[in-house]
Amino acid sequence: MVLSVLETVMQTMVLTKLVVFRHSGMLRKLILHMKKDLTDEYYADDEEKKIYLKYNYLAKLYYKLSMPYIVLGASLYYLRPVITYILTSADSNQTYILPFRTKLFFDVADSRTYYTMYAYQSPMVYLLICHNAWICLLITMVLHICGQLGILEYKIRRISIDKNKDDSQSIFQQLVKRHMRTIWMAKTLDDTFHFVLLFDLVGTTILLGLMSYVVVTVCLINCTYYYNLYEKISIPRGSLCFIYIISGIKHVRGL
């Protein structure tokens, strides 16, 4: 039951992000404006490009480090039950455990049904990967805005006004326009993601609480087993304790 709730909360968080990506007009408009910043004409010299690429490199680095780890972790999480099933296939009392605890309206009682349902749940791995993809997108957009602010600071520090030309108004006008555009990007990013981030905060709090409950319960079960093993209590009492242990393990696993 507990693990089922954990998976449900996680999947709901990911699906909420996908809905926002699909139907958010502000996010679409923001991405289109950021794409315009990737052209060479938008930067006055090589130093401005270096400032932006410094922030862009951090976004690429996070993607390169996190994405393989998430893909590997999601794949191993998905394959763990079937690997256990194959290794214990000779056991007549084995159970058919699916990677995700979906409520089924029928019993999985044979290998053919088990493998069919296993393949049916394979797209859920994509949802787990999408969670990290959303984080990568958010970090990329935040660092993009940071890069634009860094370029703006560089421009302000290098303001030079020719005394023979009265072009100070046009120079400051360009700086103000660029500053206002960067502020608009930051405000749009906040308006697009504030609900998703709030939902993530609530969901992550629930996940941490449930995982802490699972850890504490497993520790209590291990302590009970240790007590029975080394204190050498009576057989009837020990049998009762082991029944409680087995029931507790099933409860923790959500079986």
Class of secondary structure makeup: mainly alpha
Element string (H = helix, E = strand): HHHHHHH
From the N-terminal CA to the C-terminal CA, the straight-line distance is 7 Å
| C-alpha geometry | elongated
Radius of gyration: 28 Å
What is the strand content? under 5%
Low-confidence stretches: none
- Can you summarize the main beta sheet? none
Number of strands: 0
What is the overall number of helices?
7
Number of domains: 1
Mean pLDDT: 77
Helix content: over 70%
Q: What report would you give on this structure?
A:
- The chain is mainly alpha-helical and 255 residues long.
- The protein has one domain (2-194).
- It has helices at 2-23, 25-36, 46-87, 111-120, 123-157, 168-231, 235-253.
- It is elongated.
- The chain crosses the membrane at residues 61-79, 124-152, 195-227.
- This is Odorant receptor.
- InterPro entries: 7tm6_olfct_rcpt (IPR004117).
- It comes from Meteorus pulchricornis.
What is this entry, summarized?
InterPro entries: 7tm6_olfct_rcpt. Helix content is 80%, strand content 0%.
